[in-house]
Structure formats: C-alpha cells, structure tokens
Backbone:
C-alpha cells in the first residue's frame, strides 16, 4: 500500500500487441479518476519510473519463451493479486495459432530462415499455464468498461464476476438480427459474453476472442457451422482463431 | 578523454521492448546499438492455411496502436491478390477510418510518449495534476479519434466492420453529421497543440538521409499509390523489395533495410518531406508556425510532423464526411470468393511509416504465404545512423544527459517494436 493509502498497481506485458494496455489508457478518457484511485508504479509503455513493490499486477500477453517463465514467477511472488489482461494472457489468444502449424521448427524456419536458432520460442501458452491467476479480463482487446468494473471489484476486495453465458444472450437483448439469419457464421453460441456482442453488432460473426463458456456445446456448434456451408478448413479455422491453445501442446516441452 | 557508457534496459514510453547501448572509450564510439528484445510471435507463419477473409483480423493483432493500419494493408494485399474491386463509398470510408487511426496514434505519441520528456517528468500521469488542461486536451483528441474509428469500423484497436471488398456495417448520416461537428470543434484543441509545440526546446540535430513514403497524384497518400523517395526514385508496389532490400547485419540479429544510402527513414517526417504540397492549407499553416518546410532533416521533428498530420487528417475527415453525406450511404453486396487465388501486395503509410503486406492465396481461398515489412523495421538502420552521428556531438555533456537524448532520439521515431516481428536481438554480450 502506498503511504497515501492507495493500492500500488503495475502493468506488464509479454508476447502481445499492447492493445489491451492501450485500452486501459483509453479508459482514462471517461474515467480519469482511475489515476486517483490507485498508484501506478510500473507501466513501461506509458511511464519511466519502475517501482517493484506492487500489490496488483496486470499482465498482458502470452508466455512464448522459456526465459519468460522466470519473469512471470517473479511477478507472482511480488503481487498479492495477478490479473490476466486480455486474450493472449487469458487463453493464449492469437499467439497460439503458431502451435497448430504442422511443426514449430517449420514455423521458425519460415520466418527466420537460417537464423532460426537465434530466436527462442516454444508453444505459446496463457500465463495460467505458468503461474496462478486471481482474475481475468477476457477479450481481444479487453472491453474498457469491463476492465473498470474488474478493477473496482479488486480494489474493494471482491471477487470479480464475468459472464458465464454465451453472446447470444447479448445479441437477443440488443435485438440484433442473428448473423446466421443473415447468411454468415458466428461463434457466439459457445463464446463467453461480456463484450455487448460488439462484433455481431457490427456485422461480423463472433470470433471467440473471449474464450469459450464453461461446458460449451461444441458438437452442436460444429453441426451448425457445417449446415451453414463451411468447408472443413473453414470450420477448423473458426474454432481455432482465438482458441487454438490446448494444454496437450505443451506437455513434455522444456 | 571521454568514456561514456549508456545502457538503457527496456526503453520506456515506446511501444515494445528495446535496449539502447552506447559505448564510448577514450572519445571514440565503440558500440552504438538499438537492441530489440521483443518476444517473436511468427505472424507470417500463423497466416498459412488460414482462410483469406481472416487475414485482416489476424494481422490487426500485430499491433494495438496500428491495428487499423495493418488491417488496411492486409485487405489491400488480399484484394490485389484476388482481383477484388472496391467501390468509391468503400474507399471514402476507409480513408476516413484511416485518418482516425493517424490522429489517434499521433496524439498518443506526441502527448503521452514524447511530451513528458519536454516537461521533465517520467510520464503523462504527473501532468494530470500539474498541467490538467494539457492532459484533458490529449484525452479529448484521442477520444474523438477513437470514436471516429468506432463509427466506421466498430473499434479502433482491432477493427470489426472492415472486410474484403467493403464493410459489414455502415455508419448512418446522422452519426456522420454529429462526428463532423466534433471534428470542426476540435480545431481549437489542435491550435493549442501547435502552440504548445512552438514553445518546446526541440533538440538541434541535422542529418541528411533518404525519406521513403507512398505518393499519389491526387492527395496526401496514406493508402495505395507508388513508393517514392526523396532521392528521386519511384516504384510500383509490386516492386517493394527493390526499396527494402532486407539484409542481416553481422553485428546485429535485426534485419536492416537500405536503398540509395546506408539507411532511410519512414514515417510522418518522410511523408511531410515527400508530399508537403498536398497537405491541407491549415496543416501547411501549422507547419509554418513550427518553422517547418521540406526538406526537414532533424529526426526529433518527426513528432512535430505528426502534429501537422493531425491537423491535416481532421480537416480531410471533414471533407470526406461532407462527400459521403452528399452521396448518401448505400448497402453494397460483399465479395464472394471466385475459386481463383493469386498473389498481391498491399501498402499503407501507417502512423509510423510505409507498411507492406504481401500474400499468396491458393484456389481454395487459403493463405499459402505471407510477408510483412514493417515501418519500424525500415527505420532501425536510420536510428542507429542517427545515434552514431549524434553521440560525438554531445560527448561533452553529462552521461545522464547523453542517455536522455539517446532515449528522446529513439522515441522521436515513434518505434512500434511489437510490430517489427522480425527484429530480435536475443543476447548481445
């Protein structure tokens, strides 16, 4: 706790696009009082000062190198509360697409040719594969209002709750015409709500960036997608875009 | 004789992770490097085997700040590969959302990443208490640009409604008229921004280099065009490799690019130097207020060129909205895959400079190959050349000041290190 009684927070990032941290900065547009409620002691993208005595750590990005595990563990040791910020940290996100290519070696050589050994990497994984995580803010990127809500709950010592029901509920509440009825496809029936169904609202089927609901009916989802005329490749693509990570991909890796 | 040792680990207030290392022994520059330590993500490999219509959604995730720029270059590469024609309405909407991103990215850079150095603070946060009007202004402009992007594509960071051949959702006339009012009202904030920049003590530094950007006949180029350089060369987009000439350096694992000289620069300053004549008159007036007329060869002034572009983009957005309202917005059919693949190059001049996406798509509509050449990638050689030129000029200053100037120099380029997925220097002992 800072001397002024404000909890100390820090932001960290691993393999990511920093879009979630940028969304945090953008949340100041409507909630500048956030900087009064907490003391930000480390936020590399936005500030020079680097404090190490933080209470709450927000982590964006996936773990994609052995050397990143040590840094994650250090953060876990220091912070009382670790929050996974965004899809990359939560589920592996887009980064896990690398894991489903025919071979990791092939991936490394395709991008770096004969210099492939210079760039260390292993199958991408969520941070929960390395350290214990106390709360999650899903999405690619996060929804800024969900971020503010989770921060408020964390500061009040409450357990944040994010929806366990699928996007379809939000689409229905908004009276959106269902994407399937428009001739498209959408992962909404098995994806976690909380984004206010933003993609279907803008005419694009849900891509599953917030991760799947508990007990998703994946078989039914596949049937629905197949009936909509998708080829096998397209079906697999829909299922894996943001949800390619499978713990089995990292079993036995060093 | 002077010994200087600058070792900045994980440079702050830039996007991504980089280290600055400068070593001077007995007055002689022994080592001068910008080491990139960002985790590689392998985007080009990730795209292989994916349906063509996912490309822009996947590649926007290369970067949170230039998400719309990547999506745009991706769409143009896909459309060029598949021979997709886009309507005038689509072109106008795309220019509008692109302007939104330019404004958004530039205001972040100028106010939140660069300005703190001039105010002598570590971040924009203390300025919220000491200079609230400055911070509120920055947040206002950023909100405006974010809302502009959201109006057209649903969201700035990772756009939603842009797709191959058009848009899955269209803004309404009332929405656009309301946005236009806000853009017009923003002129006051922009005047204040230019006035602020006029008071800042920009470091004095000159180094001639080649400036590379897109160029078009009819407007200040951001999307499509030809590649033009201030040394007088022009290339069709398909010949982009003749400009970039990526090579590995023995001393560095980062790929560098070069064209006519040892390095070249891309970004706002490059666009300013190439296409100044096509800036909106208000932007030219801003340039005059800042004492800038091409050729400008002080890399620190890249941030000033960005402010000039903010003025231009706000004005041009107003013009585009007027045109769209005049024409009316109509639902247009989206592209359907024709069963024939191809290869295509798409290029945009995103906030940080010229970006190339190059895809090979097969007859099943799946991506077989991808190459992305990132603007920051193209700036690394120029950054190091600037560092090598600047260090001897400031050797008489205290080490802290030298370190700070090195940091400011790299920040001036507005590097987007996450984007430069090729550029990795894992260990440099």
Residues:
């Amino acid at each position: 706790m800072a001397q002024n009684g404000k909890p100390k927070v820090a932001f960290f990032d691993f393999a990511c696009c920093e879009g979630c941290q940028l969304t945090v900065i953008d949340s100041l547009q409507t909630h500048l009082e956030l900087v009064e409620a907490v003391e930000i002691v480390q936020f590399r993208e936005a500030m020079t000062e680097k404090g190490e005595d933080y209470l709450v750590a927000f982590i964006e990005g996936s773990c994609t190198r052995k050397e990143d595990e040590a840094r994650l563990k250090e953060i876990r040791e220091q912070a009382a509360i670790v929050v996974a910020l965004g899809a990359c940290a939560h589920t592996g996100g887009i980064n896990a697409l690398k894991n489903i290519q025919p071979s990791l070696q092939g991936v490394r050589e395709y991008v770096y040719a004969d210099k492939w050994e210079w760039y260390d990497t292993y199958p991408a994984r969520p941070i929960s594969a390395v350290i214990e995580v106390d709360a999650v803010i899903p999405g690619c990127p996060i929804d800024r209002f969900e971020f503010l809500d989770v921060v408020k709950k964390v500061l009040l010592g409450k357990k944040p709750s994010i929806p366990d029901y699928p996007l379809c509920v939000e689409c229905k509440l908004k009276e959106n015409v269902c994407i399937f009825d428009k001739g498209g496809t959408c992962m909404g029936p098995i994806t976690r709500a909380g984004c206010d169904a933003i993609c279907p609202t803008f005419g694009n089927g849900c891509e599953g960036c917030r991760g799947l609901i508990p007990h998703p009916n994946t078989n039914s989802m596949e049937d629905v997608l197949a009936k909509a005329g998708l080829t096998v490749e397209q079906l697999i693509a829909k299922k894996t875009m943001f949800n390619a990570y499978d713990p089995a991909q990292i079993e036995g890796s060093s | 004789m002077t010994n200087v040792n600058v070792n900045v680990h994980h440079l702050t207030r830039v996007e991504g992770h980089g280290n600055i290392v400068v070593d001077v022994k007995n007055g002689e520059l022994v080592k001068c490097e910008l080491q990139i330590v960002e985790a590689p993500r392998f985007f080009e490999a990730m795209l292989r085997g994916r349906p063509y219509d996912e490309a822009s959604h996947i590649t926007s995730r290369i970067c949170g700040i230039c998400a719309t720029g990547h999506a745009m270059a991706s769409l143009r590469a896909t459309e060029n590969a598949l021979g997709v024609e886009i309507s005038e309405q689509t072109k106008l909407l795309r220019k509008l959302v692109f302007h939104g991103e330019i404004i958004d990215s530039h205001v972040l850079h100028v106010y939140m990443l660069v300005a703190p150095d001039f105010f002598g603070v570590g971040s924009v946060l203390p300025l919220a208490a000491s200079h609230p009007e400055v911070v509120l202004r920055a947040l206002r402009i950023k909100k405006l640009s974010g809302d502009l992007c959201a109006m057209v594509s649903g969201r700035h960071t990772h756009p939603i409604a842009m797709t191959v051949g058009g848009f899955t959702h269209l803004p309404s006339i009332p929405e656009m008229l309301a946005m236009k009012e806000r853009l017009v009202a923003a002129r006051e904030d922009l005047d204040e921004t230019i006035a602020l920049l006029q008071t800042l003590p920009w470091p004095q530094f000159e180094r001639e280099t080649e400036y590379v950007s897109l160029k078009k006949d009819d407007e200040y180029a951001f999307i499509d065009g030809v590649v033009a350089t201030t040394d007088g060369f022009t290339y069709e987009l398909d010949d982009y490799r003749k400009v970039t000439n990526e090579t590995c350096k023995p001393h560095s694992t980062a790929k560098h690019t070069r064209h006519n000289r040892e390095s070249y620069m891309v970004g706002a300053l490059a666009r300013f130097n190439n296409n100044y004549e096509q800036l909106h008159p208000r932007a030219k007036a801003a340039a005059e207020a800042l004492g800038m007329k091409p050729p400008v060869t002080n890399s620190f002034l890249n941030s000033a060129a960005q402010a000039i572009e903010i003025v231009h983009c706000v004005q041009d957005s107003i013009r585009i909205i007027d045109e769209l309202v005049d024409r009316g917005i109509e639902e247009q059919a989206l592209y359907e895959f024709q069963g024939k693949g191809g290869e295509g190059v798409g290029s945009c001049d995103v906030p940080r400079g010229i970006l190339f996406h190059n895809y090979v798509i097969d007859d099943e509509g799946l991506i077989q190959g991808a190459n992305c050449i990132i603007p920051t990638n193209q700036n690394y050689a120029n950054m190091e050349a600037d560092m090598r030129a600047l260090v001897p000029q400031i050797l008489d200053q205290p080490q802290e000041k030298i370190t700070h100037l090195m940091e400011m120099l790299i920040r001036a380029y507005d590097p987007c290190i996450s984007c430069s997925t090729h550029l990795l220097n894992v260990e440099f002992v």
About this structure: Chain B touches chain A through 63 residues (CB under 8 Å). The first strand of chain B starts at residue 4 and ends at 8. The first helix of chain B runs from residue 43 to 46.
